[in-house]
Design a protein that fits this description.
The protein is mostly helical. The chain is about 50% helix and about 0% strand. The chain has a domain of about 50 residues. Helix 1 crosses helix 3.
């Protein structure tokens, strides 16, 4: 059985932390942009708090989601146009 995420002693609800982590890890948002998004929803969060959440929970979330991601075979192709000048 996998170790559960421990949200003990956290000021914010686990749903808020997971929502924030999902958006940060899924998109190319910065910590300050995430701070602004949460502020618009009435949650005053410092950008370093979001950074701590990512450092604390990001690796474990990645491990838990990995089995559900589409497998790739490791090979890739790149089309390069050839121009004769």
């Amino acid at each position: 059985m996998a170790k559960s995420l421990s949200f003990k002693w956290r000021q914010y609800e686990p749903d808020i932390i997971l929502w924030c982590l999902r958006w940060y890890l899924h998109t190319a948002l910065t910590y300050r942009q995430m701070k602004r998004m949460l502020g618009e929803r009435g949650l005053p969060v410092v950008h370093t708090t979001i950074m701590r959440w990512v450092h604390c929970f990001g690796h474990e979330l990645n491990q838990r989601l990995e089995p559900y991601l589409k497998k790739t075979n490791g090979s890739w192709r790149c089309d390069e146009p050839y121009l004769k000048i």
